[in-house]
Structure to design on (395 residues):
């Protein structure tokens, strides 16, 4: 018998679905209590048998979404992602999903309920990027629940997401860069800003740069790691550093960058000044071989760097306060593309996974480049000064 309906009381039915036999030959059933009419029970049985035959049937479980997320984070997420990524996943689920939906049974979570959470997040003024990120995490979790046979389908796949907001990037002009660097010369981290603009490194990359990565003879810097910060609560009994080095963002991010003579000279001066600071600090100095560090040798905190150094330089230079530290990377790319440097070379310099990513990111630069192409073609083919061919001869 593939299934049966057993009445347990008035408008209460137990639906049994035959799932086959276990390794000992014992018959296995999935039981589900239906509160309603016998027709409701029959409707559930028909659907369950259809899903069983298709291989998509999920046995009834009383597990809540909270309980499932705990298991998913511990068994499927923690072993395969970095500590920072794990913290982001856990934090976003706790902050936005657990309170409104955590007590719901996993199998009862509906697309409408998930949509309601996303709408509430948007109404609270959260950015579309935040909503989309939370959805990515939840969708991954529920997709795994389908693979584990805990739910028949993923309810997060049937919701509408807010549109992607365009990235607000700012690429400084050549004149703005000159002004910025002129003012920055009086700042202790002038060399850091110079490296950022001329190499296009990500902030995490140049903050993790060590002196062993600088080859003064070859005039090169090697990107081998990135600096990351922990955001979880620290354990008083087992304290761990608030920072750590992690692998570069993509395989292409591990790269060697040629440094200009001006940058190399600035690094030499910076190294000599750092040696004096190390001597003055004495035993308090913690030597992590960092190129850019605090007075005591510790890694710089990006927030402090921006607040105490980057923003004041922008203000003194008369540049928009909305410019971000990351925009120094955008400035590097835009200046090179406008100068006619091949997009493949710019892509390799930035450590992008593909040239397409580079072109998509800096598509706003392309109109100027297209004008240069048009001007070059005009000069090549239609200029009055171009050599004229004699009759019967080819140019």
């Amino acid at each position: 018998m593939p299934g049966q309906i057993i009445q347990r009381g008035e408008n209460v039915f137990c639906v049994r679905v035959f799932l086959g036999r276990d390794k000992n030959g014992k018959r296995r059933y999935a039981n589900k209590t239906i509160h309603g009419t016998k027709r409701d029970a029959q409707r559930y049985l028909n659907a369950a048998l259809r899903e069983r035959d298709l291989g998509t049937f999920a046995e009834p479980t009383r597990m809540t979404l909270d309980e499932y997320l705990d298991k998913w984070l511990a068994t499927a997420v923690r072993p395969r992602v970095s500590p920072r990524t794990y913290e982001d996943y856990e934090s976003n689920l706790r902050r936005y999903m657990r309170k409104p939906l955590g007590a719901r049974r996993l199998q009862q979570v509906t697309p409408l309920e998930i949509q309601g959470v996303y709408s509430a997040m948007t109404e609270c003024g959260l950015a579309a990027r935040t909503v989309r990120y939370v959805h990515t995490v939840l969708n991954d979790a529920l997709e795994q629940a389908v693979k584990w046979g805990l739910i028949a389908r993923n309810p997060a796949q049937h919701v509408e997401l807010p549109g992607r907001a365009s990235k607000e990037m700012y690429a400084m002009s050549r004149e703005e860069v000159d002004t910025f660097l002129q003012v920055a010369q009086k700042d202790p981290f002038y060399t850091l800003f110079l490296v950022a603009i001329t190499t296009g490194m990500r902030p995490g990359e140049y903050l993790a740069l060590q002196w062993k990565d600088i080859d003064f003879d070859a005039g090169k810097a090697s990107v081998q790691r990135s600096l990351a910060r922990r955001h979880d609560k620290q354990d008083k009994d087992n304290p761990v550093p608030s920072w750590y080095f992690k692998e570069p963002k993509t395989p292409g991010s591990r790269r060697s960058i040629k440094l200009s003579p001006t940058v190399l000279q600035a690094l030499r001066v910076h190294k000599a000044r750092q040696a004096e600071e190390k001597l003055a600090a004495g035993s308090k100095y913690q030597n992590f071989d960092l190129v850019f560090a605090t007075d005591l040798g510790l890694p710089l905190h990006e927030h402090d760097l921006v607040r105490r150094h980057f923003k004041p330089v922008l203000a003194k230079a008369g540049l928009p306060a909305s410019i971000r530290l990351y925009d120094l990377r955008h400035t590097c790319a835009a200046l090179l593309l406008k100068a006619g440097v091949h997009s493949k070379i710019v892509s390799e310099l930035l450590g992008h996974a593909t040239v397409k990513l580079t072109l998509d990111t800096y598509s706003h630069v392309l109109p100027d480049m297209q004008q240069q192409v048009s001007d070059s073609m005009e000069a090549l083919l239609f200029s009055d000064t171009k050599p004229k061919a004699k009759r019967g001869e080819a140019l």
